[in-house]
C-alpha cells in the first residue's frame, strides 16, 4: 500500500524503497554463505530418544528457576550430567568399545547397502543404495539412519562395483559425512557416478585404494577382513572368466569380501554371477561363511548349487525391493537355498536386518518383527 502511494508521488523513490529489502536479503544470504566456509559451521546430531526429550522439559524449567532453591540447582545439574552420559552411551556408540560385531543390511529397495560395526568402535559401509533423478538413497535413507544410530563418521566406505544401485547413494555420504577411507575394485569406468566419487575422494583428502584378492583391511587383532575377488589384473581376469555377457559383465568384478570374528563369518558378494562364482571355486577361495549376502539380489544368473555348497551358510540375506521389476529373488534360486536348509531373510519382507555376534553365537533381528 505504501509503495502504491509513493509510486503516485515519485516512481524513483518507490523503486528505491522496494530495492531496500532486496538488498538486505542479499546481504543476509552472503553472510550465511560466508559462514559455510568455516569448519564445523553445522553439526549433525543423532535423533534424541523419547527419554531424552522427556527430560529436556524439566531441565528447561530448572534452568529458568536455577537460583530459587538449592534442590532445583542439584536437580538441574543431575539431569544435565545424566543426559550427557545417556547421550554418549546410546548414540555415540563409536566412542564405546563393544564386544560384538554387528552387521546391518539396510533396506534401500532394489539396491544394496550394508553397515558393519566392529568391536573396537570402527565401522564400514558397503555400497550406499541407488541414485535416480527423483530419489537418492544416500540422503533419504542411509545417512538419516546412520545419524539416527549415532554414526557421524565412517572409517571405511566400499563401493563393490560401479553400478548406480550400489554406489549411487555414496555420493551424498562422501560429500556430507567425514570418511577416512574409500575403496573400490579399481575397475575403470566412464560412469558419471564413479568419476564423481573419485573426484570427491580426492577433493576431501579421503584415502583411496583399489581392493583385490589377497588384500586385507586391518581392523584389529580380533577381526579379519579378507578380499577374495577380483584379482589384481582385471584385464587378465576378463580373459580367464569365460562367457561373459555383453551387458552386465561388470557384475563379475564385484568385490567379494569375507569378515571373520572368532567362529563367526560373513561373506559379501556384490553382484557376482555364476562365472565369478565358478572362478573363485576354481581358485580355491575360502568361501565358507556363516552368513551370506546372496549374490546379485538373488538373480537367476547367480547362486549356483556349487557356490551355495562352497559357502555352506546358515543364513542368506537377499537385498531386494518390494515388487521389483526383475522379480528378484528368482524362485529357482530361493528353492536352492531352501533345499540346503538355509534360513532366508529378505529386505523387501523383513525390512532392515541386523545380525550381531560375540564371535561365538549370533542373533538376527528384523524391522518386521518389531524388535529394532
Short account of what is shown:
With 372 residues, the chain is α/β, with parallel strands linked by helices. It contains 13 helices and 17 strands.
Strand content: 15-25%
Instruction: Provide the number of structural domains.
Output: 3
Secondary-structure content class: alpha/beta
Q: What general outline do the C-alpha atoms trace? A: globular
Identify the CATH class of the largest domain.
Alpha Beta
Number of helices: 13
What share of the residues lie within helices?
25-40%
**CA radius of gyration:** 26 Å
Give the end-to-end Cα distance, rounded to a whole number of Å.
57 Å
CATH superfamily of the largest domain: Ribonuclease Z/Hydroxyacylglutathione hydrolase-like
Give a structural overview:
- The chain folds into 3 domains: 34 residues, no CATH class; 42 residues, no CATH class; 273 residues, 4-Layer Sandwich (Metallo-beta-lactamase, Chain A), CATH 3.60.15.10.
- The N and C termini lie far apart (57 Å).
- Helix 5 crosses helix 7.
- It contains 13 helices and 17 strands.
- About 2% of the residues have low confidence.
- The radius of gyration is 26 Å and the shape is globular.
- The protein is α/β, with parallel strands linked by helices.
- A hairpin with a 2-residue loop joins strand 11 and strand 12.
- The protein has an 8-stranded mixed β-sheet with strand order 8-7-6-3-2-1-16-17, with helices on one face.
- The longest helix is centred in the first third of the chain and has 25 residues.
